[in-house]
Specification:
By secondary structure, the protein is an alpha+beta fold. Helix content is about 30%, strand content about 20%. Strand 2 and strand 3 form a beta hairpin.
Length: about 425
């Protein structure tokens, strides 16, 4: 299906080589200021042609809002977003080789088998061009979450091949116990991730970023490709989002992330590393967290503090407890507990490589494929913006669902 979400519902359209890609968003709250300027920065972080380590396809990826706003304010009606495909080279996909051979590990074969027909050039619907619509709609969800709840979502590259930002050690087999990692989750911003020292890879450590950049260049120069991981943190996520049993927040995050092209893995909190340690080490003990009311504390709220959540006039609910550690990654029982939600997404090496591969054509005849075209040797530097967008879409949908439950519960108060 091409629709994601229930309350905040995004339907994406477009193939790699059709006139445009985009989406319709249904359910965006009315009355929010919104212009292209709110959306473009994330599209620019995702766009192809941004460095020597990405696909050279040179798209500007300028977004146009087609509907759903007037005078820069959302109307609550469907928002249409469109980005033109401008730099296509369909002839790269013509001829005996590219047209005749399903690219190993690409979607060519399965699309052909499933639909009996497929887009004749590019990745068609399976192309990373489709992620433009996710990034554009995610920017809108994120704007609301930031304005109303102070939510912050930041992703960064945590590995390329075997080059890791936090390699496992005997003391910290998983980063969830590493104080440097945890401090990074507290403070990292998108501006830091895009610091010139960390570009073009977007790994927030100069030495690791250089190792990763060299690794990608090495595989690009061999006409090969390499995989990697992206870590993402969601700060100030409201407590209580996630809909057990099947729409637990981590299940929705996993689905959202694993719907991004080229993903092969997802872990949250201590993840797979946490599965190798006893409960006594993995459990997150609780401590009291009774909030001090501003009138009692004698100090004004910090200008950086997240805004008070909007509760439609009902009494705000205090978060009575917090955890000392956060191996759970901010989620228990599939419901957010107020701690940072953090997770890691694994991306495989891109399937399209220029190196000769022994394979068979669509008829089963043996041959050699040397793929043509302009392709990423590694997707993780551009995937950072896509992971952030999918996180925003998941959280927005879950916040809207919980807000509706909460306001109906509040309406019942004192009425028996
Ligand atoms: C253009 C983008 O990525 C493209 C993803 C892609 C594929 O097969 O997935 C193939 C290449 O493009 P083309 O279809 O022109 O050969 C990539 O450059 C993008 O992400 O914007």
């Amino acid at each position: 299906m091409s629709t994601f979400g229930r309350a905040f519902r995004v339907t994406t359209y477009g193939e790699s080589h059709c006139p445009s890609v985009g989406c319709i968003i249904d359910g965006c709250p009315p009355g929010m200021k919104l212009t292209e300027a709110d959306i473009q920065p994330q599209l620019t972080r995702r766009r192809p042609g941004q460095s020597a380590l990405t696909t050279p396809r040179d798209e500007k990826d300028r977004v146009q809002i087609q509907s759903g706003t007037e005078s820069g304010i959302t109307l609550g009606t469907p928002i249409g977003l469109m980005v033109k495909n401008e730099d296509q080279r369909p002839h790269d996909y013509k001829g005996d080789t590219m047209a005749g051979f399903p690219r190993p590990s690409h979607a060519d074969y399965t699309y052909q088998e499933k639909y009996g027909v497929r887009a004749s050039s590019g990745g068609g619907r399976s192309s990373a061009r489709e992620t433009i619509a996710r990034v554009a709609s995610g920017a809108i969800a994120e704007k609301y979450l930031s304005l109303v709840h102070g939510v912050e979502i930041v992703a960064f590259v945590s590995s390329v091949g075997n080059e890791e930002l936090f390699p496992p050690t005997s003391t910290h087999p998983t980063p969830s116990t590493n104080p440097i990692f945890l401090k990074l989750l507290d403070t990292i911003t998108r501006e830091e991730v895009d610091h010139p020292d960390y570009l073009p890879v977007r790994c927030p450590n100069k030495e690791a970023a250089t190792r990763m950049s060299d690794k990608i260049a090495e595989f690009r120069d061999k006409k090969d490709s390499i995989g990697g991981t992206v870590t993402c943190v969601i700060r100030n996520c409201p407590v209580g989002i996630g809909e057990p049993c099947f729409d637990k927040i981590e299940a929705c995050l996993a689905q959202g992330m694993l719907s991004i092209p080229a993903t092969k893995g997802f872990e949250i909190g201590s993840g797979f590393g946490g599965c190798a340690v006893p409960g006594s080490l993995n459990n997150d003990a609780f401590v009291s967290s009774v909030p001090v009311a501003p009138s009692q504390s004698g100090v004004d709220a910090s200008p950086d503090a997240p805004p008070e959540p909007i509760t439609n006039g009902a009494k705000p609910r205090s978060n009575r407890l917090k955890t000392k550690t956060n191996n759970s990654g901010g989620v228990q029982g599939g419901i957010s507990n107020g701690a940072h939600i953090y997770f890691r997404v694994g991306f495989k090496p891109p399937a399209t490589i220029g190196q000769a591969q022994n394979t068979v054509d669509f008829e089963g005849k043996e041959g050699v494929l040397e793929a043509k075209g302009r392709h990423d040797p590694c997707v993780v530097p551009r995937a950072v913006a896509i992971v952030e967008a999918m996180a925003a879409l998941v959280v927005m949908d879950a916040v809207m669902t919980q807000s509706s439950r909460q306001s109906m519960r509040d309406a019942l108060q004192d009425r028996g």
